[in-house]
Amino acid sequence: MTAVDVLVVGAGVSGIGAAVRLKQAGFDLLVLEKAAEVGGTWRDNTYPGCACDIPSSLYSYSFAPNPDWGRVFAEQPEIREYLRRTVRQFGVQPLIRFDTAVTEARWDGSHWQVSTTDGHYTARVLVSGTGPWHEPLLPDLPGLAEFPGEVFHSSRWNHDYDLAGKRVAVVGTGASAIQFVPKIQPLVGKLHLFQRTAPWVLPKVDHRMPWIERALFRHLPATQRWYRNAFYGGLELFSFAFRHPRVMKVIQQAGRWNLRRAIRDPKLREALTPDFILGCKRLLMSNTYYPALTKPNVEVLPQAISRVEGNDVVAADGSKREVDAIILGTGFHFSDPPVAKHVYGADGRSLDEVWQGSPQAYLGTAIHGFPNLFLLLGPNLGTGHSSAFTIVETQLRYVLDALKSMRRNGWHSVEVRRPVQEVFNTEVQEALRTTVYNAGGCVSYYLDANGRNSTLWPWSTVRMTRRIRDFSPADYVTSPSAQASESLPVSRG
After folding, report:
1. Helix 221-242, helix 245-262: angle, nearest 10
2. d(CA 19, CA 12)
3. Rounded CA gap, 490 and 90, in Å?
4. Residue 481: what pLDDT?
């Protein structure tokens, strides 16, 4: 058994950020990573065209700026390498235990007992950095398991399978599909795109970063901070529209224009016209998606798949398409994270049992009944406009303030009070009611199994930073340590 003060689960964006900040603050910690390398979603998603939909200047840690981004919107290999480089730069590689998947984490009244595929760990504090882009969501389609051809999810792309000349069915039209469809279209013999709901697709202002800008950022770091702040300010202004659907309807005209200029065929254009307000579902940007759909070897079927029969994919209207491969662009388990089934709190119930289909936390970070557990990118902290790095760093300031308060005051544990958590979540749900996320006329992955929006933050990230700033002991039940010095001050790194 390995004992440690703080145990971080996951070595993606959240876990790496946590490891760096905890190490800098002098906490004894380890990071458990199920895979053989770091990167999280940017390790797992290697599909053709995979790239960020947030400007590169914002898609990095504030403490590790990257002056050498190659594009305005960085692509997957570059982001993965940035995360690897950050791990090396801040010396947290020795703190990571690779190929170590958590099978159960249970609070025993004083510590977290964590079972893994590579032994047992005990920790006073558990930080979950597993993130929402973790487990692929696979559709429950009759006959899919018996399909004789090739089937894979976009986040588990099979690069060994040759798509050249193949008849391919693509299921889903979300953020992944609009990136990989234009890349595979020239390769395949026929591409059948099954579209349950037409998405809004805005133009993507993307290009290679000029060498002179990169040189300027490298030698005058203040210019990159200005550049980053300018993008941040613009996106924060844009966030106003998410809270005011009438304003978003005006911005929506850019989507209509993008559709009209790319799609000349009236019938195809009608099939690709969304029936909800822009922003109700995740914002998508592409300059190549619509043009790819006009090619002779592409067919758009504006309906869901009902079942699979042998090599035939059967649409909701009964029509069939014979295919060699099925590619699932069906997203992830956002509001029902599988990790919730493996974390057990003070009363012996799992997070999944406590949440009952609707994840809730205080400030998206702490959960009543689960002492000393902190979630990164937890419930209701997603945004439709900003960077995950911004959210993670905001939370890490809060978590570090909590841990320093525990160390300073000799507290063994902290647990958010139930009324505090309930008041916060009531406030969030009331604010979400009039946003485009809830009132935009669509059903999205933002909504959980109970129809509740357990994914998004209803305000600006400026407000998030102010709200999730300082740890307030009054919001928590604190328990004193048997020894005031129980929090170990020396890092293993």
Report:
1. 110
2. 10
3. 16
4. 74
